[in-house]
Predict the 3D structure of the following.
Amino acid sequence: MIKAETALPKDQRIDFVSVVTRNNTHVPISKAFLEAGINVVCDKPVAISFAEAKKLREVVRKTGKVFALTHNYTGYPMVKEAREMVATGKLGRILKVVVEYPQGYAITAMQNKADGKISNWRMDPSISGVSNCMGDIGTHAENLARFITGLEIEEICADLSTYIPGRKLDDDGNCLLRFKGGAKGLLFASQIANGDENNINIRVYGTKCSIEWHQEDPNELIVKEVNQPRTVLRRGNSYLSAITQKYSRTPFGHPEAFIEAFANVYMAAAEAIADEVSGRKLKKTYDFPTIDDGVVGMAFIETAVKSSQKGAKWLKFPAI
């Protein structure tokens, strides 16, 4: 594909490529396209190791090409509203972050029920990396917490488990988090949470108020304050911030969700790609996850695994 594209006149080549392959191929494919002068939108996790992710970051920086990572939960309008509330100080100082991603689909493997979806490549360390559950969905929870709060993890204490017999990688995990600046956190991810579907959710507790968002009810953001009734903010209304309204497509009352969130990541990446292919200087920030988010995600995965292997010992987050 690269050979065919680079043989074309420059104005006829594709502007970017989407990499939606298995984890162990993300870096070699992305690297090849970047070095060929083609921008990349890549699935997460970005690599199969922290070291590999850092090498890809060097390629992104050297080529100057756009690299977007599809942590799609950052694309939900009410997630952007949550981030805006934190950034403008409406929550006050952040005290605690609780983020969860329970799924229950893998429980069938413990019930002797045939399910082809369970015996997949994510359980193969040579393809998936050092983690299944934390690498697949725990990294989404970490990224969501970081995106909304802007907090960086300082230390992790993790306890990962493999409940499904014969599997080499985790299918459940619990993490205690210490953030830079003093906030504390809990992160729970599971694929054996019987009865749960795709229930990623987050609660951020501040000194002024708290917020709560649930992916399975994504058009609402709950605002909580002591001795006050709860307020529910709803997507599509004019009282929301400008950034939230920018990424809303339909009027209030018409649900927007998973596919639109991906579209919002692509739309933001397209703004950067349009600048790049037009020869304009790239801005310092665009509203999509970058290679830096991918590097942090891999650091989170490996630190959580190492902590668990050491008996749930507190470990420092590595330098990024």
The mean pLDDT is 95. The chain is about 35% helix and 20% strand. The first strand starts at residue 16 and ends at 19. Residues 2-72+260-290 form a domain with the Rossmann fold fold (CATH 3.40.50.720).
